Amino acid sequence: MKKAKWSLVLSFVLxxxxxxxxxxxxxxxxxxxxxxxxxxxxxxxxxxxxxxIPTLDPNLxxxxxxxxxxxxxxxxxxxxxxxxxxWDLAKGAPKVSADKKTYTFTLRDAKWSDGKPITAQDFVxxxxxxxxxxxxxxxxxxxxSVGIKNAAKIEDSTxxxxxxKYEKLxxxxxxxxTLQVTLEQAAPPFFYSILSQPQFMPQREDFVKKQxxxxxxxxxxxxxxxxxxxxxxxxxxxxxxxxNKDYWNAKSTKLQTVxxxxxxxxGTAINMYxxxxxxxxxxxxxxxxxxxxxxxxxxxxxxxxxxYYLYINEKTNKYLKNLNLRKALNAAxxxxxxxxxxxxxGSVPSNYVVPKNFVNGPDGKxxxxxxxxxxSAGEASEAKTYWNKAKKELGIKTLKINFLSQDTSKAKxxxxxxxxxxxxxxxxxxxxxxxxxxxxxxxxxxxxxxDIAFSGWFPDYQDPMTYLDMWTTGNPMNTIGWSNKKFDGLxxxxxxxxxxxxxxxxxxxxxxxxxxxxxxxxxxxxQGYTWSQKxxxxxxxxxxxxxxxxxxxxxxxxx
Amino acid sequence: xxRYILKRVGYMIVTFYVVITLTFLAMKxxxxxxxxxxxxxxxxxxxxxxxxxxxxxxxPIQYLHYLWNFIHGNLGGSFQYGMQPVxxxxxxxxxxxxxxxxxxxxxxxxxxxxxxxxxxxxxxxxLDWGTVTLAVVFISIPSFxxxxxxxxxxxxxxxxxPVIGWSGPMTHVLPVVSIGVGVMATIARFMRTEMxxxxxQDYIVTAQAKGLSTNAVIFRxxxxxxxxxxxxxIGPLTSAVVTGSLVIENIFAIPGIGSQFVDAIxxxxxxxxxxxxxxxxxxxxxxxxxxxxxxxxIDPRIRVSGGKSI
Lengths: 559, 310
Description:
The complex is a heterodimer. Chain A has helices at residues 2-23, 64-73, 120-129, 141-146, 151-155, 191-194, 205-211, 266-274, 285-294, 323-332, 335-343, 380-394, 409-425, 438-446, 465-468, 485-496, 501-517, and strands spanning 44-49, 78-81, 84-87, 95-96, 102-106, 171-175, 178-182, 228-234, 238-243, 257-262, 280-282, 299-312, 348-349, 399-406, 429-436, 452-457, 521-533, 537-538, 555-556.
């Protein structure tokens, strides 16, 4: 009730600010300048953001805001930039043993913000702390995903000999500057990119223990190792980064100050941008057309790796086991209309499982390069053909579909569109939309109390596997009941046989092909970001994997 | 009088206890868990988390546990903020909402009383008609619409005031005006009615008949008497303004308690929901107490204790 009222108020404000901001375009002149290539004296970047930093403890951070702040203030063995990894605290590629299971990294001479050197022991402590159940790690499963030795056993609470015994993790400090990592098998291709994530960053034991419960809750209960330090952090107001002069690569950091201001109203954030009180603003769909007209040179879009699709319940709905019916559902929805008319935020239509612009294979090409447009089941006209075949095969004339979704305003728009497309293109099918709060939605989903359900996925690491292994038989995330032995086999091969990267890559390509030949889901769209940045801001990006807002190498031109 | 107050405080504690209990139960009926990635966690991980947050125990035990901690001034840790104490957030952010509320009240009350007096004196004339119309407009327009309009004209077009913030006098103007005009309108209407009523009373006629000047009649007799009912509306109005400033806080990005409350509900941050509700409830209850006591002071007939305690 509270939430509903609140969203009503929000939409009023939004509508109003739209009307108001459409009235004037006085500030567009300000932005035409800024074409010189000279650096501005004042290297300060200001952004608005709609969320607070909940915590900076790399063990507890699960949200994008915290993760981004950690990635800007701390360093790992690698750092992501423009979707590629660079060596950060590691001096360069590690020495790899003949069996490809042991990786020996040499560390650079780098310092914590209190002047003490960053050592291999700090990495060991950080990794062990991520596997200590008492330190409440949220993402420790990543250690198992990448195959760090014993990680899976340490996480398994039924394994008496290993559970919680983080000292058995495959990581060792040979000396202050040498870190040895042991894996269960040859490292998967995403090994180096995942090392850039907060979970794999060093933490210093004496400092963490001294701070106790206060660790990483304010600017002075933290040690910094990355391009920036936090100089101010006021909950509800915002935070300020300052350049970290002690960072080993400080010469590549040009920004001196970065301000993040917490603003929950999009209309307010946009007013700040228009009046020059912020340099970058994230746009929601309602504002995009207006910005395209008013600030054509400042508006930016990029795809992110969020993919959205419909689950099809094959476990408890006997009709949906029919391939032609699933094909009919896939062909019935005009995705272009969905992304351009409903979403209008840089999202792109998708007919695939693994998103584009996300990961490149051993050949250096995007995973999508073999099937750039995915696996379309056909146009709306073909949907009827499939539907007629399905009707004959199933001996039915009409079909009632229970469409489970979430009760957010964005999901509701999508639901209405999808339901309408199905009804329009598959005569005789009726759709009951069942919109539920998140938790109920999950419950109904896990209990298979739906026919089709709107869902989405974000990657845990930069590899097609993060989008594919969940569809194997018996995986707890497989809440569609689809099962294919050959698919399971391909995934298993890719998981265990990591040494031959080309074969593994081809296995994953084949797995996606195989999966989509049976249409167990209805892919809808891949998400996009749209933001506006002043033309004097350069070197800023919102890559599909890595820091959400990457300003580590950004700079301000004279304007 | 003391007995009256003690009795009221007793009621207050009972009310407060009922509020805590009902909120606790209502919260437990909210669907969902505070764990954002509940679907991606294994059952063991989920149990670990539940144990850590004390959510694995039966609800009656959780309830008693909560009461015990509450009595000791411990409201628990916020789930969204890695278990940082809830009291810390309340102490940090509530004063800002309180300040915004009080400033708006002062702005609205002073202007409202003034307008009400003027319009009461000039009843039926242009000034009165203008004030009444303005009051109706300001009562009908929700404060957030007014805020968005003010922000657009004064911060984006004319650029006199900053768009957001709560750091200097300039940042206070727009939010205080946005909330204050509603208060002003309410008080002005109230004050006008009272003035009109008082000015028709026999003692005013008497005062005029005695030969007092118009100014003396109005200031010494009319306004003072018309003010008494105003005192009684200001209390509840203050509570309403302080707790209702949430949307304005969001529009001007003021770090008050309002948006914290909404976030807490959306993320099932139980300790934060409880803490904020208790604070709001406490504010209401104390305001009502103060108003009741003031009533008693002004009018001895209202006292409940049977009249012997004076």
